[in-house]
From TrEMBL:
Subcellular location: Membrane
Protein name as catalogued: Energy-coupling factor transporter transmembrane protein EcfT
Organism, scientific name: Clostridium gallinarum
Annotated Pfam families: CbiQ (PF02361)
Membrane topology per record: Multi-pass membrane protein
Superkingdom: Bacteria
Annotated TM spans: 23-53, 65-87, 113-136, 246-265
Keywords, sorted A to Z: Membrane, Transmembrane, Transmembrane helix
Length: 275
C-alpha cells in the first residue's frame, strides 16, 4: 500500500529531473500564479499542472488525503471571504450585477462569484505542483541539488531529513493507532466524531514522544560523525543538469513572463470581463 506524500522511484520524465530543477521551477510557478488574477492564465496553468501530474505517473492515493484536507480548507476560506467581505468583487471590478439576496447585508453578486472563482483556481493551479514536488523528489538527491545552487549543506540536509521523515511518522502513527485500538480505544466511524477526536489524543501524545526520541537519536548520530565540522561536503546522489532540466526551467520562466505581461495588459493584477 502506498503511503501518502512518500517518494517513489518511478520511471517518468518528472522523476528524471534534478531536485534543484523541481525546486526552481516550482518557485517560479508559484510566483507566476501569485502575481496575476488573470482567469485565462490561471485556468491554463491549472490544466498544465494536471497534465504534468499525469506525466509523472504518481498514484492519486498518495496525495488524496492531503488534497481533500486542502479542499476543505479552501471551502472554509471561500465562506469566510464572503462573510467578511461580500462585495470585494464589486469593489475590484467596478460594477455590480446582483443575482439573489440571502439575508441582511448579504447579496450574491456575479462579480463576487468571479472573484472567489479566481481565488479557487489560483489554489488549483499551485496545489498539484506542490504535492508533485514532494512525492517526485528524492530527499537525498534534493539535498545535494540545494547545496549545488548555493544553499548551505546543513540547511539542505535538514530539508532532506524532514522529507525522509514523513513516511516514518505515518508508520509510527499506524502502529500506535493499532496498539491503542487493541486496548479498546475505538477510532472507527462507528464512534461519534467528538469521541473520535478525543480518542485521537491517545495517539498524538505517544507519536510526539516517539518523534522527539527519533530526533534525539538522529542528532546524536550526526554529532558522533562530526557533522558540520567542514564548510563543504560531497554528495553521493548529486546529479548534473541535463537538457530536460533546462527546458523545464525555461517553460516556468515563460509562464512567469506571461503572468507579468498579463498584469500589464490588464492594467493591474485582475482580469476584468465586466468592462
Amino acid at each position: 500500500m502506498s503511503k501518502m506524500l512518500e517518494y517513489s522511484n518511478i520511471d517518468s520524465p518528472i522523476h528524471k529531473l534534478t531536485g534543484a530543477t523541481k525546486l526552481i521551477a516550482f518557485i517560479i510557478w508559484a510566483v507566476a500564479s501569485m502575481i496575476t488574477y488573470d482567469t485565462r492564465l490561471l485556468i491554463f496553468m491549472f490544466f498544465l499542472s494536471v497534465v504534468v501530474f499525469k506525466i509523472s505517473k504518481v498514484e492519486f492515493k498518495q496525495i488524496s488525503f492531503v488534497l481533500y484536507f486542502i479542499l476543505i480548507f479552501l471551502l472554509l476560506n471561500n465562506i469566510a471571504i464572503f462573510i467578511f467581505s461580500p462585495y470585494e468583487g464589486v469593489q475590484i471590478y467596478g460594477s455590480r450585477t446582483e443575482l439573489f439576496k440571502i439575508a441582511g447585508p448579504y447579496t450574491v453578486t456575479l462579480e463576487q462569484l468571479f472573484y472567489q472563482f479566481n481565488i479557487t483556481i489560483k489554489y488549483f493551479s499551485i496545489i498539484p505542483m506542490a504535492l508533485l514536488f514532494i512525492v517526485a523528489t528524492n530527499p537525498s538527491e534534493f539535498a545535494a541539488s540545494l547545496n549545488k545552487i548555493g544553499v548551505k549543506y546543513k540547511i539542505a540536509y535538514s530539508v532532506s531529513i524532514a522529507l525522509r521523515y514523513i513516511p516514518d511518522v505515518q508508520k509510527d502513527y499506524q502502529e500506535i493507532s493499532f496498539a491503542q485500538q487493541a486496548r479498546g480505544i475505538d477510532m472507527s466511524k462507528k464512534e461519534k466524531l467528538s469521541k473520535r477526536i478525543k480518542n485521537s489524543a491517545s495517539i498524538l501524545m505517544p507519536l510526539i514522544f516517539s518523534s522527539l526520541e527519533r530526533i534525539e537519536t538522529i542528532s546524536s548520530a550526526m554529532e558522533l560523525r562530526a557533522f558540520g565540522k567542514n564548510k563543504k561536503r560531497t554528495w553521493y546522489n548529486e546529479r548534473e543538469f541535463k537538457k530536460g532540466d533546462y527546458i523545464t526551467i525555461i517553460i516556468a520562466m515563460v509562464l512567469l513572463i506571461l503572468s507579468i505581461l498579463a498584469t500589464k495588459a490588464n492594467n493591474g493584477r485582475f482580469y476584468n470581463p465586466f468592462i
